[in-house]
Write a structure and sequence with these properties.
The chain is α/β, with parallel strands linked by helices. It is built from 13 helices and twelve strands. It folds into three domains: 13-173, Rossmann fold, CATH 3.40.50.720; 180-282, Orthogonal Bundle (6-phosphogluconate dehydrogenase C-terminal fold), CATH 1.10.3660; 289-361, Alpha-Beta Plaits. Helix 3 (76-86) crosses helix 4 (100-108) and helix 10 (237-259) packs antiparallel against helix 11.
C-alpha cells in the first residue's frame, strides 16, 4: 500500500487487544513504517502478535497519538475509559461491531468523550486470533466512523487517516444509523444462518450428502463463536428485534400458505414473498459498488491440477473479464462446477466459444 499511498499517520499507534482485528491493523500499519505498540490482557498474545510483525510490546514510555481498542464487546467501554484516562493526549477509537451501547455507557459514567470516536471495520475471517491476522484484511472494505456532536474535526481526521492507511474506505455514520444498518445486514443474517444450520444437526446422512451450494451459502457464517455473538446480539437487541419480527411475519405468511396451497390466494402470497426477495437482492451493490447485474455460466471441470487455471487462461484469451467466480464440488464425482459471472452481452458468444474449446457447459 505504501508504494501508491503515502502514510497519513506519522505518530505512534497503540493497539489494545491482539486478536484477529488488532493484529491485522498492526500488520497493515507496520508495513508502512508506522510505530505500533501492542497491549493485551494476555502477555502470550502480545508476544505472538509481535513475533508475527504486528508491532512491539507496549512500554511505560509510549506516547501514542491514536489508540485502537480491539477487545470483546462486553469490556469495550471499560477499556476505552481506561485508555482515555491513561493517555490524555491520544484519540481513542474501537472496532466493536456495536457503537451505541459503549457510547451510552461512557456518557452515563460522565466520561469526557471528546477524544473518543467509535468506528467499525466491516472485515473479518471465519477464524480468529493473531495467527489468522492479515495485513491486507481491510483493503477496499468499509470502515464506519461514528462522529457525535462532541467530536472535533482534528480527532475525526485521525481516525479516518487510520482507516485509509490500512486500505479501508471510511464511511461516516451516526452510532444509531450504524447499529440499525449492521443489525439488518450482519447480525440478523448471522441468526438466520445459525438457525438454518441447526436444522442440519438432526438431518439424515443422505440428506446432508445432497447439500449443494444453496445451503452452503446460507450456512457459511454459522460456524462463528457463540460466546462473541451473545455479546454482539445483546448489545444491539433494539436494532435486531424489529427485523426478526418482520422476518417472523413473512415466514408465518409462507407457512400458512403452504399448509393449504390450493386455498384461494395461497399461491399469490408465496409468489409475492419470493418476488419481494428478488427486489431486495437486486438492491445489493455488485462489483465496484455498482448495481449492474451479470449473466452466470457454469462449466464442469475435472478435479485435477491445472484445470481451473486452464479455464481462466482461455477466458483471458477470449478477452472475457470475469466479474465474479465460485467453485463447487460435485457429490460423489471427481469434478467441480465453476460458476462465473460475465456481462450479459458476451454470454451467448462465450457459450459457443467454450463448447468449441471442448469445455462442458452446464
Amino acid at each position: 500500500m505504501s508504494d501508491t499511498h503515502p502514510v497519513r499517520l506519522n505518530a505512534q499507534v497503540r493497539i489494545v487487544g491482539t486478536g484477529l482485528l488488532g493484529a491485522s491493523i498492526g500488520l497493515a500499519l507496520r508495513s508502512q513504517g508506522v510505530d505500533v505498540v501492542l497491549a493485551d490482557s494476555s502477555p502470550s498474545s502480545v508476544r505472538l502478535a509481535a513475533d508475527l510483525g504486528a508491532g512491539r510490546p507496549a512500554s511505560a514510555t509510549d506516547v501514542p497519538q491514536v489508540i485502537v481498542v480491539c477487545v470483546p464487546p462486553d469490556v469495550t467501554s471499560d477499556v476505552i475509559e481506561a485508555e482515555l484516562r491513561a493517555y490524555p493526549s491520544a484519540v481513542v477509537t474501537d472496532v466493536a461491531s456495536v457503537k451505541l451501547a459503549p457510547l451510552n455507557q461512557l456518557r452515563e459514567r460522565g466520561v469526557d468523550i471528546t477524544r473518543y470516536i467509535g468506528s467499525h471495520p466491516l472485515a473479518g475471517r471465519e477464524r480468529g486470533g493473531a495467527i489468522s491476522a492479515r495485513g491486507d484484511l481491510f483493503i477496499g472494505r468499509p470502515w464506519v466512523v461514528c462522529r457525535v456532536e462532541e467530536t472535533p474535526p482534528w480527532a475525526l481526521a485521525l481516525v479516518e487517516d487510520l482507516a485509509l492507511d490500512v486500505g479501508a474506505v471510511p464511511i461516516e455514520m451516526t452510532p444509531q444509523a450504524h447499529d440499525q444498518a449492521v443489525g439488518l445486514v450482519s447480525h440478523v443474517p448471522q441468526i438466520v444462518s445459525s438457525l438454518m444450520a441447526k436444522q442440519l444437526e438432526g438431518a439424515s446422512d443422505d440428506a446432508v450428502r445432497l447439500a449443494g451450494q444453496g445451503v452452503r451459502d446460507v450456512t457459511r457464517i454459522a460456524a462463528s463463536s457463540p460466546e462473541l455473538w451473545i455479546q454482539i446480539l445483546g448489545a444491539n437487541k433494539d436494532s435486531i428485534v424489529g427485523v426478526l419480527e418482520n422476518l417472523q411475519k413473512d415466514l408465518q405468511n409462507v407457512t400458512d400458505a403452504l399448509r393449504d396451497v390450493d386455498a384461494p390466494g395461497a399461491r399469490t402470497i408465496i409468489a409475492e414473498e419470493m418476488s419481494a426477495g428478488n427486489a431486495g437482492v437486486a438492491r445489493l451493490p455488485g462489483k465496484h459498488g455498482q448495481n449492474r447485474r451479470f449473466a452466470q455460466i457454469v462449466v464442469l471441470v475435472d478435479d485435477r491440477p491445472g484445470q481451473l487455471a486452464q479455464l481462466l487462461t482461455e477466458l483471458g484469451e477470449l478477452n472475457i473479464n470475469v466479474e465474479d467466480l465460485r467453485l463447487e464440488h460435485a457429490e460423489g464425482a471427481q469434478m467441480g462446477m465453476v460458476e462465473f459471472s460475465v456481462i450479459p452481452e458476451v454470454r451467448d458468444s462465450l457459450l459457443k466459444d467454450l463448447e468449441k474449446r471442448n469445455w462442458r457447459v452446464a
